[in-house]
Amino acid sequence: MEQSESEQESQAESHVESKSSVESKSSVKSLPGGTAHVKLEIKKHAVTDDYKLSKRVLGLGINGKVLECFNKQTGQKCALKLLYDNPKARQEVEYHWRASGCPHIVHVLDVYENIHNGKRCLLIVMECMEGGELFSRIQERGDQAFTEREASEIMRDIGTAIQYLHSMNIAHRDVKPENLLYTSKDKDTVLKLTDFGFAKETTVNALQTPCYTPYYVAPEVLGPEKYDKSCDMWSLGVITYILLCGFPPFYSNTGQAISPGMKRRIRMGQYGFPNPEWAEVSEEAKQLIRHLLKTDPTERMTVSQFMNHPWINRSMSVPPTPLHTARVLQEDKDHWDEVKEEMTSALATMRVDYDQVKIKDLKTSNNRLLNKRRKKQKQAGASSAAPGCNNQ
């Protein structure tokens, strides 16, 4: 969430006051199929009447910071997102509210319209996701192997969220690991999608704004094609790829958030399945990725096709093959922190060139992280087979 420096202040409770002069706005939370659900009533009394605000910042997303707060009646720990009130913020609240009925989308509990630091703000109270980010959880597994079957189950959960959104003609437009959070650190935790700062309705000509996160951006954003639901499917392909090996299919070789070379590789569909990380991954999983990462959005798999793919809808039949993912993520932990920072800073509108998108097969990919790790393994005297997965 991009935020001005003044919003980084942690004095929300002392400065938030009620604004009763502005008329209330309500909207309808819609379920797939057009079923009306609960109306959103934006409350005008001070959020501090109902919640005790903490100075602890839980996270930063596209459009605002997230603070810890507690329900005064129940003691429930929640997350409070502060947005300066404007049409874009209203839109974000609307889409998130409508979507939060899905079990794999972070639930919005309350919305307030208050004055903060002299400015009108919207305050979104959400369930607190205490389990952390998707990749962090995998990094922390230690010697416990992460399997292909687990990757399938994770992608089914993410697909459920995207299917829910697409059934309401909403494109999330920023599906990435940092926006996928677990409810708790327990074994039976639930993975949920959050941050609707880039969400848009998929009406005609509605999704042509080139704002995105580079590592998960679809080729049509870098060319003239319309930016629509198929972008979310491209992102699902990138996330599936990372879950199965530990590194993304496209890299910037210059250290920039998105370099000309990386642009070209994304637009031309240049990626591979290098060994040893991909040696034991099923052909079914690779086939799914190929269908998701097609550069032509008209050829790309839809969310319904994704959810009906056997690698997704028959997770228990997917082989529990130990993957290299946890080891790779742990070895490259410092690099991944840098990548996350690059992606956060690059969440802004950019100019794009409009060269025609062409599809080109590439037998070898110039993957900076992969090459660096290969070199390190050779220097360590890894002359025999590559190290196996941490599955002891």
Automatic annotation (TrEMBL):
Record's keyword annotation contains Magnesium: no
Molecular function terms, GO-annotated: ATP binding; protein serine/threonine kinase activity
Compositionally biased spans, kind Basic and acidic residues: 12-22
Protein name (database record): non-specific serine/threonine protein kinase
Alphabetical list of InterPro entries matching this protein: Kinase-like_dom_sf, MAPKAPK_C, Prot_kinase_dom, Protein_kinase_ATP_BS, Ser/Thr_kinase_AS
Residue ranges of every copy of the Protein kinase domain listed in the record: 52-312
Signal peptide (UniProt feature, chain positions): none
Pfam family, one: Pkinase
Record EC number: 2.7.11.1
Broadest EC class assigned to this enzyme: transferase
Compositional bias (Acidic residues): 1-10
Catalytic reaction annotation: L-seryl-[protein] + ATP = O-phospho-L-seryl-[protein] + ADP + H(+); L-threonyl-[protein] + ATP = O-phospho-L-threonyl-[protein] + ADP + H(+)
Keyword tags: ATP-binding, Kinase, Nucleotide-binding, Phosphoprotein, Serine/threonine-protein kinase, Transferase
Region described as Disordered: spans on this chain: 1-32, 365-392
Domain of life: Eukaryota
UniProt family annotation: Belongs to the protein kinase superfamily. CAMK Ser/Thr protein kinase family.
